[in-house]
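Ticket #4471: structure export looks truncated?
Reporter: QA, pipeline team
Priority: medium

Steps to reproduce: submit the single chain below to the structure queue and open the exported record.
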Amino acid sequence: VEVERPPPGPGARILLVDDDTVLLSVLADSDLPSVTQETAIWSAGPPLGSVLGQFIEGGIESILSH
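Actual output as written to the record:
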């Protein structure tokens, strides 16, 4: 997949380990210029990890299909 320009917004990193394990992190954007640290959540196992994984996979598929 070739990406010409990333979408606007804060920087984010996503790690989908399996169907139930997710690591999601973001950096603050221009709305919070004093925040320079990364904020992250980790979830392993159902129900939260499963739901997050489904949302993330759906979002990635939506981006790739455009």
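Status: closed, not a bug. The export was complete when the record was re-opened. Leaving a note from the reviewer for reference: The chain has one domain: 12-65.
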